[in-house]
# Entry
Amino acid sequence: MNAHSFNVLRLLSDGQFHSGEDLARLLNLSRASIWQALQGVEAAGITLYSVRGRGYRLPRPIDWLDAAQINQALGPHTTPFHLHIQDEIGSTNTVLMQQASLGAPHRTILAAEQQTAGRGRLGRSWVSELGGSLAFSVLWRFQQGVSYLSGLSLAVGLALVKALQSLGIGQAGLKWPNDVLLDGRKLAGILIEVQGDSLGPSCAVIGIGLNCKLSATAQANIDQVVTDLSSTLSPPVSRNLVLARILQALDDVMQTFEQKGFVALQADWQAAHLFHQQVVDLLSPAGIRRTVLVRGVDADGALIVEDAAGIERIHAGELSLRQRR
Ligand code: BTN
# Structure
């Protein structure tokens, strides 16, 4: 979509009908530019009602990200974040990794209304939807080296669960290493990428994708069993509030992580792990399944499992955990 498409969508977010003429006048654009902008909207898979003589209407008004609302929800006591919101981006992680190497400051947040090349873990793509998802990345700088960051992705998962609890979603939990599940379905995912020296300093770009209200079309495009906030939260909460709660929880968890490491969060993490002391399948990238008992996680975030051969530590990225079928 081009910038005009986003401006048109913002005007249509009042849920009212607007004629092409009306939109052109309000945006000071030609009718041809409005037509092109509307084409872009439809090409992006966004449904518009169009009624002859009345114009266009968005059947589902968009809850736009808004820096002022996010800052207000963060309140005066949170250490400030450098918050940037873009309409469209390939991947917030990719761009923030580039900005990090160019010196972007600690606590930079890059959020996007729309990601066109969202990335997930293990080389997968990540589907998000305009107005229906949160897709953002956080730059965190550490004095310590990259080896200190091994439990970081688990720590961030814990922050997400805490944020959801603060919104009244107490039943959300974790699946090692860092999927956030609700009723056995994926609600949020985390992609962490790091830069720096082994002895420090280092930095991490923490990418978070959360399903807020996904359309049936978006859900059909995702090759995992997913859920969203709207299936459990009624009335719906603003994405700005959700983002602020995540940042607050992240702030708390990161303070502990920076000072004491993942070991200080290990017990809380295990309490939030939906598969703690459960029998699960471990799946290798080649598709080989093994059944094990989950004993816990260790101080650097490795999963501790047991089977007839004994106890073993599994590192994120090697194997993925599956509920027993
Ligand atoms: C996963 O596979 O579970 C991780 C998904 C992470 C998605 C988020 S959305 C914001 C950030 N930008 C990306 O390209 N990916 C992450």
